[in-house]
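Before the break, one more example. Copy the sequence into your notebook; we will annotate it together after we see the structure.
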Amino acid sequence: MEKNDKDPDLHHDDDHNNDKSKEEEKGDTVSDDVDVDKKENVDVSNAETDHVDPGDNAEKVVNSPLGQEDAPPEIPQTIESLSEELDQLLTSLSLHKEEQKDVTEEEKGEDGNYFQIPQFVGKFLDLFEDKLSKHDTVDPKTTWYQDPEEVSSLLEAVDRVSKLMELLLNTKSCLDHHESLINHAGSIQQRAMAFLEDEFRVLLEESVIKEPAVVTEDQQDHHNDSQDQDNVNNVPEGDDEKIEYPGYSEEMVVLLRKIVEKMKGAGYGCECKEAYLVGRRNILMRTLKQDCEFEKVSIDEVQKMSWGELEREIPIWNKTVKDCSSLFFPGELKLAEKIFPGDEGSLFNIVTHGLAIQFLGFAEAVAMTKRSTEKLFKILDIYETLRDGFPAIEELFTEELRSELRSEVTSARSRLGETAINIFSDLENSIKSDSSKTPVPGGAVHPLTRYTMNYLKYSCEYKDTLEQVFKSHSKMEEEESTERAFANQLMRIMDLLDGNMEAKSKLYKDIPLSCIFMMNNGRYIVQKIKGSAEIYEVMGDTWCRKRSSELRTYHKNYQRETWGKLLGFLGHEGLMHNNKIVKPNLKERFKSFNATFDEIHKTQTTWVVNDEQLQSELRVSITAVMIPAYRAFMARFGQYLDPGRQTEKYVKYQPEDIEDLIDQLFEGNTSSSSTATAKRRT
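Here is what the structure looks like once it is written out:
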């Protein structure tokens, strides 16, 4: 170590032949150097000089004129053995600093009331530097924290060096006379701070016992059953505490806080905070990717995504925001408060605020994508997450950022709400514009009816949210729209759908088939409404009863148009003359009945009634009308046909055959005609 001739501390006797009085005088000054009240300006070998080897001192004692051969060997100096002396020196130096505040330059004299620094200070610094070097060369480096005594020794040494530097730099006499010592101590302090900063970063990153996945309620029981076994693998032996996110043991949090205190005390608080911010940001994003599969995407990237990609991203976003609201963000706030007491949320704000803004940017970006009806439900999912999950996130931030976030959330919800309302308007327009001229084969339920009703049924699972959306974001001016905006919207869609189906029923030239078409679609609508408590609540019982009444009207019209004509063949008119049966007319009546029934059977077996209840109701009602009439007609007039060939020719069906064939109607079976014929021949 270099010497400075201008530094009074650097002058010490190299001549070992000085007389005894000088040696005793020097010894007196070493022992008295901490007693500043008696004598401060003393001549003692400085810590910045070459340190005297303890062995040399022992040899000098043995070879002394007094021949003190029995003197005990000098005990090697350690950080621990020198710490008490250094603490006393720091106390004395602190008192000296305070006393010099009110002393004038004239009173200080030529030497400026010089304060002597003993040699052991340099030895302490060298030993501390050796300790840092030892830990720097250990692989893995971060092992010292596992020994509580070593933790205490190292951090207390850091504290003493920091206090020494603070006193040296703020005491004028030290600045004037101990430049080399200040430089040496400052260099060691910087190395200590670099060491602690690296260790802080490594401990922050690698000492997480477990970055826990979010445990849902339905997984809790299983989690509790397996927790003991998991703890064997994840929690240090003897540690029974439950580790929650972010997953540091209490002992590790205490150690991290101590490192922060030491670095802050040395004036390196900013470097420590920066290491914390970088580390926690990385850990949080890694955790979100592992537990939620979340990765940041920009607004431009969102708007370039296909709907299929967005459908996968939105549930991930929802889960991430909810988990951040309930677990990750509260965990980050608690951790920052524990490691940096008195921080008042500023570190938490920096770690999480950007992510919260990114969440909101994603929501707005989705709202700005091209509208389509299939996007409604995902948009409502996002809306609900912002409504239900984000208030808890807002409350974690400081007032200024809380206000900013609330404003951003309001903006995002407004965009999403307006988009949802516009999607409903698009649904209205799609019903209005559906002017296809091709009738659905067999009078089956129209695809538009299926799509609309399934869409509305699913929409009503979000009834409360949609009512809030229409109430808060609708631009309609009608007073009733504020309270029943969604219900009114639903009614309009139902009226539009009803009108559209009515128009499409006219595409069928066969009136009975148009009735079947209206019954199919009407029954489908009613069943969907009755099957959903939410949509039934909106539409109401009155509406359902009215629609059921309309269905009965269509049923009657169908029966009259189809089977009324057939029943006419079973009447008595024109079959008797002068109280006698007119056989030619009777034969013609049977032939006409058979031909008409065959045609009805052939046609209506291709018609479609998918609703089993409606299908059964139609068949039962037809049977109830036709079978008694046909049975009575056969009983009254069948006997007038000659047995044998004549009966087989004109009496094609027995009542039981008619009943069986009626049960084949409305199955949409194009091959049913041949089947019916084969059945009739048996």
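The longest helix spans residues 533-568. The chain is about 70% helix and 0% strand. Try to locate both features in your own notes.
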